């Protein structure tokens, strides 16, 4: 496994200022970037587990939009 902290990725750059909220559509793009990295490292089984996690996060985000 490679050390991801040595490389600069859009995810690391975008999360460098936690005080700002992501713009509409930015968070899903960041999640997809994370998904690609994890799939590359974890293989198909890891990708399947990641899919479950992303589905759950998507549900949470949808509920948060309705809650205000």
Description:
By secondary structure, this protein is an all-alpha fold. It has a domain at 44-68. The protein is 69% helix and 0% strand. It has two helices and no strands. It is elongated, with a radius of gyration of 14 Å. The model is unreliable at 1-18 (pLDDT under 50).
Number of helices: 2
**Unreliable spans:** 1-18
For the biggest sheet, the summary is: none
Instruction: Tell me the number of strands.
Output: 0
Kindly provide the radius of gyration, computed on alpha-carbon positions and rounded to a whole number of angstroms: 14 Å
Q: Proportion of β residues?
A: under 5%
What is the mean predicted local confidence, pLDDT?
70
> What is the general shape?
elongated
The N- to C-terminal Cα distance equals: 40 Å
């Amino acid at each position: 496994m490679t050390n991801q902290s040595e490389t600069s990725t859009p995810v690391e750059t975008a999360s460098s200022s936690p005080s700002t909220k992501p713009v509409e559509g930015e968070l899903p793009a960041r999640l997809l970037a994370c998904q690609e990295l994890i799939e590359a490292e974890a293989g198909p089984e890891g990708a399947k587990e990641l899919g479950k996690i992303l589905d759950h996060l998507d549900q949470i985000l949808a509920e948060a939009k309705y809650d205000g």
